[in-house]
């Protein structure tokens, strides 16, 4: 019985950790006041007929707070990279000199900052919902142990432990949210 309980809790913990990692990755794609190469993670370039992640075709550096410098490994694909950047929803026009592409990040207006915070709140809620779904699945599995001879006290203790686990991960999500919100709103 103890082995089954441990297996259920370990599975829930692993899934919650993956949810947190996904949340972290998700919010790095939301722009803050400083330029970050992470905003290019989802940009795909049509390279020899294949959609290829931009970060596999070029090195990206941040020489200044509001500037991204994209240096393609293959200079012949610079036009394709520019095209992909124009198509992306970044809202930034690339500037090319034939060797490198510069992305100058515009200053964020107050309205845009508020918009980004709303997006961030939506992602936080999605993360919390995912965590609650994992808790529900774990609690359902724990309840099934009653059929295998687990006592009501054991089930209640495990459900309390599951709640403690989710509380910890929700708190971590909220801390990540707070840091990112502070970063976005900082002028």
* Average predicted confidence as pLDDT: 88
Q: State the CATH class of the largest domain.
A: Mainly Alpha
- Helix-and-strand structural type: alpha+beta
What's the order of the H and E elements?
Answer: HEEHEEHEEHH
Main sheet specs: 4 strands, antiparallel
User: What is the count of DSSP helices, taking H or I runs of 4+ residues?
Assistant: 5
Please name the CATH architecture of the largest domain: Orthogonal Bundle
Keywords:
two-stranded antiparallel sheet; Gyrase A, domain 2; 2 domains; alpha+beta; 59% helix; 187 residues
Structure description:
It is built from five helices and six strands, in the order αββαββαββαα. With 187 residues, the protein is an alpha+beta fold. The protein has two domains: 2-29 and 109-185, Orthogonal Bundle (Topoisomerase I, Chain A, domain 4); 37-104, Gyrase A, domain 2 (2-Layer Sandwich), CATH 3.30.1360.40. A four-stranded antiparallel beta sheet has the order 3-4-6-5. Helix 1 packs antiparallel against helix 4 (110-144) and helix 1 (2-28) packs parallel to helix 5. It is elongated, with a radius of gyration of 22 Å.
């Amino acid at each position: 019985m103890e082995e089954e309980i441990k297996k259920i809790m370990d599975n829930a913990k692993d899934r919650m950790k993956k949810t947190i990692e996904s949340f972290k990755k998700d919010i790095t794609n939301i722009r803050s006041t400083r330029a970050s190469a992470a905003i290019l993670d989802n940009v795909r370039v049509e390279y020899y007929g294949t959609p290829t992640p931009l970060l596999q075709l070029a090195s990206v550096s941040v020489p200044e707070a509001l500037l991204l410098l994209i240096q393609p490994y293959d200079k012949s694909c610079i036009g394709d990279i520019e095209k992909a950047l124009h198509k992306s929803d970044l809202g930034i026009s690339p500037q090319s000199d034939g060797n490198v592409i510069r992305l100058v990040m515009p200053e964020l207006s107050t309205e845009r900052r508020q918009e980004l915070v709303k997006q961030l709140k939506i992602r936080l809620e999605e993360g919390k919902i995912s965590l609650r779904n994992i808790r529900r699945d774990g609690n359902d599995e724990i309840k099934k142990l009653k059929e295998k001879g687990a006592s009501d006290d054991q089930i209640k203790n495990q459900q309390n432990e599951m709640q403690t686990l989710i509380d910890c991960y929700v708190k971590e999500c909220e801390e990540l949210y707070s840091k990112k919100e502070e970063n976005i709103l900082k002028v």
